[in-house]
Amino acid sequence: MAVIIPVVKITGNNFTCYNRYEDLQSKRGFSVNSQKNLTRGVYNGNISSMQRKRIASMIENLHSSMNFDLLKKSVLNGEKLRPVIFITLTLSQKQFHNDAFIKRNMFGLFLKNMQKKGYLNTYIWRSESQQNGNIHFHIVSKDFIDKKIIQKTWNKIQLINGYMDNRLLSGIGSDAPSTHIMASYSLSCTSAYIGKYVSKNENNRKIEGRIWGCSDNLRNIQDCVIICDNELKELINVEFKKGTLNVWHSEHCTVFSGNVLAILAKNNDRRFQAYLNNCKTNSKKVNGTFVEKEIKKMGALELKNDITLSSKQIFLHDQRLKRNLLASQLKINY
Questions:
Q1: Is pLDDT of 300 > 90?
Q2: Domain residue ranges of the chain, discontinuous segments joined by +
Q3: Domain 64-218 has what CATH class?
């Protein structure tokens, strides 16, 4: 027997209202839909509609989690948020390696080199082909990086693999325009422009293998989804009648678009605090990976049999015990 629960997903621009179906018996038996997914056809090089939604949602959740402490001030007082960074990497010459080689030996090496410098530990990437047939990459990250560092790192990798001439050795071509960087401060711009741009499908050639991915610390971030009670329905209807919300309907949901966070904040609605709490939780999940890495470096936690603690486990770990472990390693007396 299915239980129908009306819920609302809150983002910076939208209330997305839909019914969530919970069927306890569905997990016990055979799922026809799951079987269809296994035999739905060959890879066509495009991102599915579900993946597009996931990428756009992940990018917006990344931006909001970076600014959970500034969102209220931004909504009420117009304070500027911390930006997400949008990076594009292109090849300087006609591509003569296959996509798998470039992703593994060039793009993968770029990520590793940047991470050694302390950057791009949190990122979402997308590969697609240009009109000239070359593969290129988009990266969304929370790290501010000097554009010269990105250019020199990527161009040196291009030189190694034959995509730049030897002018780089003399320092002449290290700043060749093979990269583009922009920053997005607005939550609505991040969602509407960058999220859709990264997840769009082009009619160019099909990319071999994976076409997008993200760092491990972004896999578990969650949307803010709450139960849609009568009080929230009334608030949405009132704002819709005022003209502050627009509406469009689909088969599975109804979307009210507008300055959603401002509406919740100005009405002192408890859902705004729920949204902020969700952003804070996501921030802990994102930054928990860094805490875990630092603890491992300092030898504060002994991990046996290559067991890796998740970010959730790190933050649920007793704070006093963690402090004592770090203090003992650093020889600090509290």
A1: no
A2: 2-43+224-270, 64-218, 272-330
A3: alpha beta
